[in-house]
Write a structure and sequence with these properties.
9 helices, alpha+beta, four-stranded antiparallel β-sheet
């Protein structure tokens, strides 16, 4: 029987999102599982939960999902850029059509989790002009186009530990919008690797080797490193950026892209987008299939 992925992974029409990350306290498993079970109770808002390697091993010691590891820091080969590790234990991703309902659910989760975990990331995301990043380019353009291809990219295949679940990469990126807005549009297009208005990928000599598209559109051993992106802008007029979120069937789809962005590639060049946006957090997690989530939480007292 095929296992059932958490439905929110593929829910694409939400206008409001919330991102909550936690580190578990030294509390017994029964209390943690009970708190998680209560936190997941929701009627109006989509909630996806994922677990860091340490947390999953603690709560479900019988097995580990295929290829899951902790996020490790990546340092660029030039420019002093870095992707820091702030590895989390629990990551809740909320989506909904009404900002009030999403906020209510976030408050509910915090109320349930505060006795067993420390809140380490608390950010509200939103849809910006129909899936735009704040830099003015559409986010997730290269996502798989069909439901089948999205599932193939996002879900661990049958027969592997964690099948039907997904590996999750989350990062908070802070944009330097003042610097970015000073760049002429044709230069912005060269940084991203796409045209800004038509949203068409640059071709041939027009595509710089250090563009974001060049550094992330990869193949490893002939296999395209496709991920399913579900990022969202965040912030205020003082600080803003992108809450990067992606799902994949194997961890190397994340690690290969990160290494390439930070200059660990044949060309030895960094992704030029790093000059305008800075990563301030980074975690790898596992979003289990519903059957595995229920099995892990089963038998708890409400």
């Amino acid at each position: 029987m095929n296992k059932t992925p958490q439905a929110g992974i593929f829910y694409e029409s939400a206008k409001h999102m919330y991102f909550l990350e936690y580190r578990l306290k030294e509390i017994n498993n029964q209390e943690i599982k009970s708190a998680i079970s209560r936190a997941l109770q929701s009627e109006k808002v989509s909630v996806v939960i994922s677990f860091g390697k340490s947390a999953w091993s603690k709560l479900q010691p019988a097995w580990l999902p295929a290829t899951l590891e902790d996020f490790y820091e990546v340092t660029a080969t030039e420019g002093g850029h870095r992707a820091p590790s702030t590895q989390t234990d629990l990551f809740f991703w909320l989506q909904g059509e009404d900002v009030g309902e999403v906020f209510d659910q976030a408050m509910h989760i915090q109320q349930q989790m505060k006795s067993v975990a420390k809140l380490t990331l608390d950010e509200r995301g939103f849809d910006y002009h129909n899936h735009m990043d704040l830099i003015g380019f559409e986010d997730g353009t290269a996502n798989p186009k069909t439901d089948e291809l999205k599932r193939d990219a996002a879900l661990i295949p049958a027969g592997l530990p964690g099948e039907g679940g997904s590996l999750v990469m989350s990062e908070k990126w802070v944009h330097n919008m003042e610097k970015w807005n000073q760049v002429p549009v044709h230069c912005q297009e060269a940084v991203v690797g796409r045209t800004k208005i038509e949203n068409e990928e640059l071709e041939g000599d027009a595509m710089p080797v250090d563009s974001h598209v060049s550094r992330t559109d990869l193949k490893v051993d002939g296999v395209a490193m496709k991920v399913y992106r579900r990022s969202a802008p965040f912030g205020s007029v003082k600080q803003n950026g992108l809450l990067y979120l992606a799902f994949a069937c194997e961890l190397k789809r994340f690690t290969s892209q990160l290494e390439s962005m930070y200059g660990h590639n044949e060309e030895g060049v960094i992704d030029q987008l790093l000059n305008y946006s800075t990563a301030v957090s980074g975690s790898y997690c596992f979003a289990p299939a519903m059957e595995d989530l229920q099995e892990m939480l089963q038998g708890i007292s409400q």
